[in-house]
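ok, trying the design again with the full structure, not the truncated one.
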C-alpha cells in the first residue's frame, strides 16, 4: 500500500476535487491522492431551494467515486492529526501518510453542540436546518404545516458557509406565507449575531426593501444559545448599552437554525491554524493561498483564513490561483498568482426572484453581468436553479470552469 504522495489533498468536496482536477489537467503525471471519508458528494447550495420546496433533494447527491478525477487516488479515510514539520499526517485508520505538497480543503465544521438543545432536536418539533442533507426536506414540510404562527430564522456570529443562506430560506418562507394569504397573520423574525443585514452596501439596500416588503422583524447582535424544544422557546444572548450580557426568549412555531461554524478540530489542534484564533482557520496568505509558515502547504475553501465570504464561488476563483502557485513552488519558483477575494452570493428573495451579489475583499461589487445586479431578477433565479447546478457537476468539478 502506497503511503507517500507527491501531492496529498485533504477533502473531497468542491475545493478538494476542483483543485485536484485542475492540477491533473496541468500535469497528468502528478501523483495525487484525495483523502475523503464520505461515500457521497453533495451540491449544498441547492439545499436552500430544497427547504423552500423548489428543488429535489435527490438531485443534490452523487457517489463520491463519480467525482474523483481520473488519475487521482481516493483514500477513503479521515484525517485526525497533522504533522507538518515531518510532511506527514495521520488518519482515523491509524495509517500515516507523507507528502511533498499538501492541499488543505476539508470544508467547514458545523458546531451544533454550541447551542444547547439543538443537536438532539434538529429535524423535530419545528426545529429546521438546511445545513444537513437529512434535514433540509423537513424545512419544507414544516413550512407547509405552519399556517399562521411565529417563524424564526437565525444566523450566528461566526463566519458560515454561504453567508446569505440564513436569509434566503427566510425570504422563501415569507413569500410562501404571502402566496397563501398567511403573511399578515404571521410573524417572521430574523435573529443574527451580525450587525448588518449584508456586508456590501449596494446589496444591503435592496435586502432592506425585501425585509420591509415581508414585514420581517430584525434583531441584530443576537446569538442563539439555547432551544427549549418542548416549550418551543429559543434563547438569544445580546449586550445592553452597558455591555452586560442579556438573555432574550423568543417563542416559535418554526425555527430555522444556522449553527455556529469553525474549521475542523484536527486543524484547530494543529500548527496549521491561525495562532490564538478559536475558530482555527488554516493560516494562509490571502493572496497566494500558500500557508504562511509551511511553504509546501496550500489551503482552499471554507476552512482557510481568507477574510471573505465562504462560498463555492470563492472556491472557483481560489482554485486556479492555488494550482498555479503550487506548481510554481514545485518547479522551484515563487508564487505569483493572486486571488482578489472574489465571492458571490445568489440571494434568493422569493420564488422567481434573486439578487446576484458579487464582491471582493473590500466588500466592493465585482459584477459579472452587463446590468445592475442590485435588483431582483427572474433571470438570476434561473441561473441559481438551472445553470449553476449543471455547471457544478459538469464543469467545476472537472476543472474546466
Amino acid at each position: 500500500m502506497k503511503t507517500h504522495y507527491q501531492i496529498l489533498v485533504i477533502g473531497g468536496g468542491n475545493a478538494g476535487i476542483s483543485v485536484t482536477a485542475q492540477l491533473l489537467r496541468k500535469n497528468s503525471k502528478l501523483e495525487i491522492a484525495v483523502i475523503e471519508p464520505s461515500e457521497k458528494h453533495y451540491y449544498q447550495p441547492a439545499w436552500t431551494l430544497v427547504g423552500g420546496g423548489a428543488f429535489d433533494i435527490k438531485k443534490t447527491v452523487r457517489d463520491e467515486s463519480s467525482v474523483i478525477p481520473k488519475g487521482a487516488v481516493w483514500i477513503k479515510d479521515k484525517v485526525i492529526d497533522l504533522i507538518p514539520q515531518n510532511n506527514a499526517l495521520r488518519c482515523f485508520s491509524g495509517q500515516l501518510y507523507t507528502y511533498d505538497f499538501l492541499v488543505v480543503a476539508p470544508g467547514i465544521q458545523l458546531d451544533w453542540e454550541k447551542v444547547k438543545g439543538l443537536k438532539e432536536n434538529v429535524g423535530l418539533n419545528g426545529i429546521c436546518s438546511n445545513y444537513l442533507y437529512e434535514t433540509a426536506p423537513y424545512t419544507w414540510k414544516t413550512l407547509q404545516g405552519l399556517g399562521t404562527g411565529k417563524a424564526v430564522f437565525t444566523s450566528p456570529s461566526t463566519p458560515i458557509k454561504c453567508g446569505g443562506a440564513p436569509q434566503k430560506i427566510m425570504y422563501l418562507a415569507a413569500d410562501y406565507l404571502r402566496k397563501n394569504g398567511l403573511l399578515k397573520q404571521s410573524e417572521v423574525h430574523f435573529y443574527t449575531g451580525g450587525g448588518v443585514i449584508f456586508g456590501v452596501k449596494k446589496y444591503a439596500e435592496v435586502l432592506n426593501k425585501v425585509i420591509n416588503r415581508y414585514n420581517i422583524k430584525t434583531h441584530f447582535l443576537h446569538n442563539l444559545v439555547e432551544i427549549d424544544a418542548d416549550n418551543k422557546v429559543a434563547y438569544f444572548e445580546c449586550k445592553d448599552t452597558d455591555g452586560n450580557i442579556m438573555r432574550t426568549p423568543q417563542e416559535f412555531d418554526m425555527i430555522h437554525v444556522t449553527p455556529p461554524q469553525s474549521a475542523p478540530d484536527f486543524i484547530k489542534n494543529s500548527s496549521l491554524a491561525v495562532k490564538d484564533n478559536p475558530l482555527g482557520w488554516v493560516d494562509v496568505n490571502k493572496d497566494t493561498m500558500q500557508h504562511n509558515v509551511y511553504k509546501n502547504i496550500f489551503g482552499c475553501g471554507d476552512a482557510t483564513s481568507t477574510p471573505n465570504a465562504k462560498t463555492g464561488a470563492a472556491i472557483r476563483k481560489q482554485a486556479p490561483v492555488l494550482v498555479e502557485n503550487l506548481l510554481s513552488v514545485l518547479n522551484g519558483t515563487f508564487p505569483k498568482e493572486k486571488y482578489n477575494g472574489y465571492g458571490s452570493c445568489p440571494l434568493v428573495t422569493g420564488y422567481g426572484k434573486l439578487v446576484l451579489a458579487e464582491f471582493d475583499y473590500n466588500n466592493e461589487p465585482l459584477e459579472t453581468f452587463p446590468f445592475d445586479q442590485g435588483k431582483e431578477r427572474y433571470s438570476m433565479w434561473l441561473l441559481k436553479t438551472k445553470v449553476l447546478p449543471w455547471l457544478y457537476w459538469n464543469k467545476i468539478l472537472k476543472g474546466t470552469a
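Keeping the full-length input from now on. Residues 312-330 form the longest helix (19 residues).
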